[in-house]
Design brief:
Number of strands: 22
CATH topology of the largest domain: Nucleotidyltransferase, domain 5
CATH class of the largest domain: Alpha Beta
Shape: globular
Number of domains: 2
Number of helices: 18
Oligomer: single chain
Helix content: 25-40%
Strand content: 15-25%
Structural class: alpha+beta
């Protein structure tokens, strides 16, 4: 059988074909297109029409393969407002739009942060949907028929029903993972009509068939499946783990580090450590922390206007170790206009050498991320009481050998890197489970272990990294 994953990321969209024949599982990229936000009038938006064009081009590029099912996954927290005809009410705001800087503080004067966390189990980030909606103007909301997550909107336009899949709903900070329903308290405080939010469906739900306008010989019988509409939920479903003493790191624009659990962990410690409880496949809980990731390097590269990631990594390899260390979680790195300038300012303020070359900036970013990963892993162990023995790194960052080795060194655990296309793989495997082709998630993970190469990195230089971590802890203490 053939399953199509439409993976919408914050930098690009991909159409990935997954083919499963008994125990043979293969992926093939059909189409890739850029996804660049639009800056206009002091705001940051997504160009939904352009993304749809990229998706449609990918669908029409399929030849000689009969597609059995399709599913879309995307980043979380952002939303699309649609009218009664299913058309977009513009604009669709980007999560880094500055409007939430004021709205988050204003909302928390109405509902205390402990109450918000008790209702949702979601960590505090100003970009969360809750605070985006607090910044909305009422005419837009009054004119809207439904509010959908990005992936769920695209599933609707492909032929599915208007619904929100549970993994994406859980990122909104409006969903209660204990009652498994929208929070009545928070909807009331936002003055949102209950009918604006559609029903929530479990991951692995068939929600329709492809619309006639998109049907081709290859797509004529394709079912639309809500897999894990949230890309991290899909990526974690593809983590090729065994046993219980493992954690995952979904490494890309964001870094998401966590563990898989049966029930949400909603207590004072989780709230104080700013952990989150997002829903995964089968109703599982992804106890995790959203932390800064390769966004720092992506933004530096945008400013420099040259260098590819492989070149920067190669240049960083031979630089002096720990010349400069930053705290990647510092708020100044969330949405700066000039990332290199922000890193330089941090170094000056902490009386460290300012990086002078792209290679030094890259080395600083990678070492600092690895130290932040160690800090986060220690928090996970504190929160769960479990010692982590293996860290699975999936996603685009799993290709970065230097960062993976730094992560193993900093965390002093074995790192297993791969698969790179974890999000698409998880999306595809959930489709296969839904259509009865694969028995369950355990079987899907076994298929991934069998068909995709994993690279193991073992920890080195413990004394050197312990010393660097001591420096890093002082930086964290400074920011608290």
């Amino acid at each position: 059988m053939n399953h199509l994953a439409i993976d919408l990321g914050a930098e690009s969209g991909r159409i990935i074909l997954g083919s499963l024949d008994k125990t043979a599982l293969t992926l093939r990229e059909i189409h890739r297109f850029p996804n660049n936000p639009v800056r206009a009038g002091g705001s940051l938006h997504w160009d939904i029409a352009k993304i749809w064009t990229g998706v449609a081009q990918g669908l029409h590029a399929i030849e000689n393969d009969t597609i059995d099912s399709i599913s879309v996954d995307s980043w979380g927290v952002d939303y699309v407002l649609v009218d009664s005809a299913g058309q977009v009410i513009e604009p669709t705001y980007h999560y880094r739009d500055p409007r939430t800087q004021i709205s988050s503080s204003a909302f928390l004067r109405k509902v205390t942060w402990p109450h918000v966390f008790d209702e949702t189990g979601i960590q505090f980030m100003p970009i969360n949907t809750l605070f985006q909606l607090a910044a909305e103007n009422s005419p837009r909301l009054k004119g809207a028929h439904k509010l959908l997550g990005i992936a769920d909107a695209f599933n609707l336009w492909l032929g599915g029903e208007a619904c929100i899949e549970e993994s994406l709903a859980s990122t909104f900070q409006l969903y209660n993972p204990i009652t498994r329903d929208w929070s009545k308290l928070l909807l009331k405080e936002l003055d949102l009509p209950a009918e604006l939010l559609p029903k929530v469906v479990p991951s692995g739900t068939v929600i329709g068939e492809i619309i006639p306008a998109l049907k081709t010989d290859c797509l004529s019988g394709a079912k639309i499946v809500a897999t894990c509409s949230h890309d991290t939920g899909a990526a974690v479903a593809a983590v090729p783990a065994q046993g219980t003493k493992w954690a995952y790191l979904s490494s890309g624009t964001w870094s998401l580090m966590g563990v898989e659990r049966d029930k949400p962990v909603i207590n004072d410690t989780a709230r104080e450590l700013n952990f989150t409880n997002e829903v995964g496949y089968g109703g599982s809980i992804r106890l995790l922390k959203n932390i800064s990731g390769l966004w720092l390097l992506q933004e530096c590269r945008r400013i420099w206007g040259k260098f590819d990631y492989a070149e920067l990594t190669a240049l960083a390899t031979n630089q002096v170790a720990f010349r400069s260390i930053i705290n990647p979680a510092d708020e100044r790195f969330l949405a700066p206009t000039n990332m290199p300038d922000s890193i330089a300012a941090f170094c000056r303020e902490t009386e460290q050498p300012v990086p002078e070359t792209p290679a030094q900036y890259t080395r600083c970013i990678f070492e600092s991320l690895a130290l932040l990963y160690r800090h986060t892993l220690k928090q996970i162990e504190k929160l769960t009481g479990d010692k982590i023995e293996v860290l699975h790194v999936v996603g685009g960052g799993s290709k970065n050998q230097l960062l993976n080795q730094f992560t193993a060194d900093a965390c002093q655990v074995d790192v297993l890197a791969g698969p790179v296309e974890a999000t698409a793989l998880g999306n595809i495997m959930i489709q296969a489970i839904t259509l009865g082709e694969v028995a369950d998630l355990s079987s899907a993970r076994e298929l991934i272990r069998t068909n995709f190469e994993l690279v193991r990195y073992q920890a080195k230089n413990p004394a050197l990294w312990n010393e660097a971590y001591g420096r890093f802890e002082k930086l964290l203490a400074r920011d608290q």
